[in-house]
Amino acid sequence: MPTPMPYAITRQDDGLLIEWVRGEHAALYPARPLRLACPCAACVEEMSGRPLLDPATVSMDIRPVFVALVGTYGLKIRWNDGHDTGIYTFERLLAACPCEACQGDRARSR
Ligand SMILES: [Zn+2]
Ligand SMILES: [Zn+2]
Asked: Whole-angstrom Cα distance, residue 33 to residue 63?
């Protein structure tokens, strides 16, 4: 399967709006869960995948301040807590898509 590439990415104070397909399949990734899912080496132990980030240290009003593409395979988010080392691959983001259709698909395949 080819690497997914979103049609549009919009930064919002409450999260990231990703439109996967033009005019359809759009979903808002809420800010705090996205910050908590940061895959960088400071937040997740690389070898074991053990989470190193204590959710209690992440503010309730965490928000993305800047979003940048990383090549054609992912994006980087700078958060208002200064953290910006995580690279979120599109593959991962699509697999975690919070839209109703994807949630439904995942529930059915469980
Ligand atoms: Zn991180
Ligand atoms: Zn979806």
From this structure: 10
pLDDT in tens, 43-84: 999 999 999 999 999 999 999 999 999 999 999 999 999 999
Both tokens assigned to 97: 């898509």
d(CA 50, CA 90): 22
Q: How far is the CA of 72 from the centre of ligand 1 (A)?
A: 20
Which ligand has its closest atom nearest to the C-alpha of 40?
A: 1
Distance between CA 88 and CA 109 in Å, rounded?
Answer: 24
Cα-to-centroid distance, 97 and ligand 2 (Å): 5
SS (H, E, C) 54-75: CHHHCCCCCCEEEEEEECCCEE
pLDDT at 3 over 90: no
**23 burial type by CB count under 10 A (0-12 exposed, 13-18 middle, 19+ buried):** exposed
